[in-house]
Amino acid sequence: MSGKSVLIIGGGAAGLESAAQLISLGYKPVIVEKEESLGGNIKNWDRLFPDGIEAKAVLDGLLKRSSFSDIYLNSNVIEVKNSNSNFTVTLSNNNVVKADSILITTGFDVFKAERKEEYGYGIYDHVITNVDLEKFFLSKHDERINSPKKIGFVHCVGSRDEKICNRNCSKVCCVTAVKQAIELKEMFPDSQAYCFYMDLRMFNRGFEDIYLEAQSQHGVRFIRGRVSEVSEDIDKKVVVKCEDTLSSKPMKIKLDLLVLMSGMLNNSSSTQLSPVLGVKLAEDGFYKCEETIPGGNKTNVNGVFIAGTATGPKTLPETINDARSAAIEIHNYLNSTING
Amino acid sequence: MADFGFSLHPSSSIDLDNADKRLYKIVSELEPDIKKCIACGSCTASCSASNLTKVSFRQAILKLDRGLSEEAVMLLKGCMLCGKCTMTCPRGINTRNIINLILRYSDNKKIK
Amino acid sequence: MKERIIFGYDAFVLPFTIGMIFIILYLGVGLVRIIAALSKEDRIKLVKSFVSPTLIKTIKDIIFDCLLHVKIFKKNLLLGYMHASIAFGWFMLIFIGHIEVMIYTPQRNGVLYYPVFFRYFVMETQETLRGAFFFFLMDFFLLMVLSGIGLAIYKRFKSRALGMRRTTRLSKRDTIALYALWAIFPLRLLAESFTADISGGSFLTKSINHLFHNFVNNSDHILPVWWAYSSALGIFLFALPFSRYMHIPTEMLLIVLRNAGIKSDNTREGFAETEIYSCSSCGICIDACPMTTQKKNLNNTTVYFLRFLRRRNKRKPIVPADKCLMCGKCVEMCPVGIDSCRLKQFKRSDVSENGAKADYTYLSSYSSNVKKGSKILYYSGCMTHLTPNIYNALFNVLDKANLEYEFLDKDGSICCGRPLMLSGRKEEAKGLIEKNSMLIKESGADILLVSCPICYKMFNEEYDLGKIKLLHHTQLIDSMIADKTLKINKSDKSFVFHDPCELGRGSNIYRQPRRVLTSQGRVVEANFNKKESICCGGSLGSLALSKPERDAITKHSIESLTYNKPDTIVTACPLCYKTFSQLSGTPVKDIAQVTAENLI
């Protein structure tokens, strides 16, 4: 066991995986988490693409392997004193932690769908988000979902949108929409699902197969047209307007449930944390990697590293790989400071 | 260009090499953002006039780019210039100005 | 007092006199041209205005605006004094000079140059109280003008001291006229001082005369100075029609025509020409324009637009005309009241003359399916379909007040036509106006309720709705709170109200929204509010402004709104609401939403 310590800010998938790796490399990391339990965004998910593994199983594994860490829950980082890469960190409950290196794994924020007012989230009775739907799959209960016969999925909500000031594609929403369409169809076999997309990003191995399955086995209809407005009719059905660009005609359809695929935005804590740590943010609010190709785990501050969706949208396997690579970077860094 | 002895009816296919892009050139010099369109269709979907008649901004600039300028103008004559398309465009294109420019310079004569 | 020079003439009066004759001819021809360019109806209006009470208003306006520059005093005291002192002081010098001639040398009445060069041609025979009084007045007004000139010179270096962040870039002709004008009064002072011991003077001229006694006593030095004075006047008069100072005579004509009810109907002739020449290039419109938060847009302000029109440049006015937000602030702040937004719309119309025209004949087959006979007909307008929070909140309020209403454009609007009109396509907008009028009248409603100020201004000014009453939702909510139809909860939250361009400056509705908010919380004001409110940046008036340029304007407007740190920014326009929501950290709500939240 080396005497060096690592502070991990953010106890989500990336934070827990890198803690697990650091533990197996002989460290006792400290995890600071702002919520009252660990796990971050994956706590809200039911089953993961492409194979339908349960998120809970993944989370339980991560929690078990990282349990040796010192954990501070309900805590935020308030102040960081950096003297030659020896960090003294003050937390919100007045705890002070000393660390030889810091790992930022603060993750992402889901786009608040109320901001896209024309889609009617929070205004109409049967408009929900992808996050709400995953929670429904876990709890089996949501008063907005009432044996829907016709279900719509709106892609790119809060992503690729200059009006939200977010040009980024959130990467995973397309395959999530197709996955959720299939899951809803399995739950309500008499229903019909529609996906309203601009592009279909089925980038990974196996994703095109999911798309194929959705079309042929579950009859999901894919309509190429971005939804411009949503309204409600007398029976509280959701009325969706888009252009069916492939037939060049405006289209209108009434649905019983509309699912908005809210995108991944930068975590709101970054505006407070960035000046405290001295780590630069990029123009879109995510953290800036010093080198993107040889390994995007270093920041502009010596001794401060970064992993996971804090640097941009990623799938869960990519996040876990990124966290492992960060653990190795940190291990190499800490060893070099011992020798050098 | 060699004549192979057969010809396609002009309106059935697009000959990108010989497309008449004069109007496209005039408009894109004044509003370069016209090149940013990803054809998502939000403009046509939110259009006040497209409920009632054939008006489509997305299709119009596509036709303009393909050299079918008269068809592009026909697709915009019913436009009320209400501005909803500009409000919804995810690429931040100034659609309303482009429509006005297409109508304004439809005779292909830019003011010197 | 008696004449010193026989025949009352010297060659030095020539530059001034020839300049004066030139100006009189030029103005005469200009007047004839302008009146000839007016339409027949406008000429009749003009004649009628001379035989009606408007004549009194016109005379009052000329005194208050041309001489005293009251409007500029309201913007900044020092700036107002600068303009007023030169205008009023110079007017008094001319006026009193003529009185002097009438009293002392009545034989020279009607000689063009005599009052101007009075102090050269006369000699004081006895010191009288009346004489001393006149001398005092002349010196006093000369000092007034000189103080104004001093401020004007200072303003060229430090304009902020006079409340102007930016001033106009002068053209070469303006610069020649400017230097000539600045030279006139110091030279007058010098010239009159030289002859003060002969012709008499007062505190200013006599003092200088005593100071430079030896220099002044050499009679060879007197004439060159008077030549210089006359030449400065001459240069100024010759340069006047080609410079910004043409506003001096033209503004008077503008006031006469405007009070007769005449408006511009093209970009260059008739009333438009009067407006263009009345522009003094004062530059107040530069600071008023919301675009100038970015330096690159300085050239797109009204003052330069008018300059391009004046020079009959066909191409250059197009960019400022297309970029203009039509927010009306430059029209509001203009001391001369030039309706430049109207001229810009005509320019847009001119440019689109040869192009394709919009065609709304397809509307004829459309009919609405609202229930006939409902008391209130609600027209949301195009933009409000993208902000459903506004009409949902409004419907909650109307339901609470047990009011019956029908939603005319629930399935999609036929645009009111104002964005089309602002784009210079007023003729084409008639197709929309006709169809909408028909639908509205067919509904049998008593009240047309709108939540969008753009629609409000359009219905108010360009539609004839017969007996149907037009109400903006702020007006309706205000009256319902006043007659206790709505019961409202008051909290300690603070609100700032953003005056939309079309509701505030455009339709003069300022008090009702503030009354509504005062009944629900504490109202604080923006740094620039009411008539000076800064456009949100989303205005459909602008054709060519890009999104980044608009964002800069939005941020500037938000800065002004959050100056007094309100809890919520309240708007009454769907476009302002959407534009601010995208960039504001402070929550943004429509006034209907706020009211709905505070209903008991």
Summary, kept brief:
The complex is a heterotrimer of chains A (340), B (112) and C (600). In chain A, 26% of the residues lie in helices and 26% in strands. Chain A has 340 residues and is α/β, with parallel strands linked by helices.
Give an overview of the whole structure.
The complex is a heterotrimer of chains A (340), B (112) and C (600). By secondary structure, chain A is an alpha/beta fold. Chain A has 7 helices and 20 strands. In chain A, the strands form 6 sheets. A 5-stranded parallel sheet of chain A has the order 5-2-1-9-20, with helices on one face. A 5-stranded parallel sheet of chain A has the order 11-18-12-13-14. Chain B has one domain (21-111). Helices cover 39% and strands 0% of the residues of chain B. Chain B contains 6 helices and no strands. Chain C folds into 4 domains: 14-40 and 77-248, Up-down Bundle (Fumarate Reductase Cytochrome B subunit); 272-352, Alpha-helical ferredoxin (Fumarate Reductase Iron-sulfur Protein, Chain B, domain 2, Orthogonal Bundle); 365-478, Rossmann fold (3-Layer(aba) Sandwich), CATH 3.40.50; 487-597, Rossmann fold (3-Layer(aba) Sandwich). Chain C is built from 28 helices and 10 strands. Chain C is elongated. The mean pLDDT of chain C is 92. Chains in contact: A-B, A-C, B-C.
